[in-house]
Prior knowledge:
The chain is mostly helical. The protein has nine helices and no strands.
Amino acid sequence: MVPKLWNETIEGHRRAVRDATLDTTAALVAARGVRSVTMSQIAEEIGIGRATLYKYFSDVEAILVAWHERQITGHLEYLAEVRDQASDAGERLEAVLEAYALIAHEHHGTELAALLHRGEHVARAQQQLSDFIRDLLTEGAETGDLRDDVAPDELASYCLHALTAANSLPSKAAVRRLVAVILAGLHPRA
Length: 190
């Protein structure tokens, strides 16, 4: 019988190799471009054999998809933290929309984004984000802070589509103005 400590050590090692692979690949791609990075370069940079790397990932694209999934998970966790720090429904929605818009502003279109934003993991994340915003809109409508004359799913879709403009704006101040315009459209009609 293998002691539990051994299993934890092996799992820890696997996580460390995986994380190093993700981080190293992202750094190499940022420095050299998506098409210029090979599995051999990644293995050499990490200090493992190429055969070992292939036990974890089939190719560079698979590594980048795993890295992107980790990034998305981190963004969603961050948005939940931002939501939980605000006191009422309107403030929670504003904080989440601004945080998401700033994330979108920092991660504008690149060759890497075009490669990564076509996967199933992105569709799942977009649905999670839509549900997240819908729930905030529902809460705000129930408290009277936000409009209730448009279905929350529809409003969430409007918000997310409007927030895509953040990736082409010239500054964080412009991003904050975009969020203010979106929020103005969410307030109840007088």
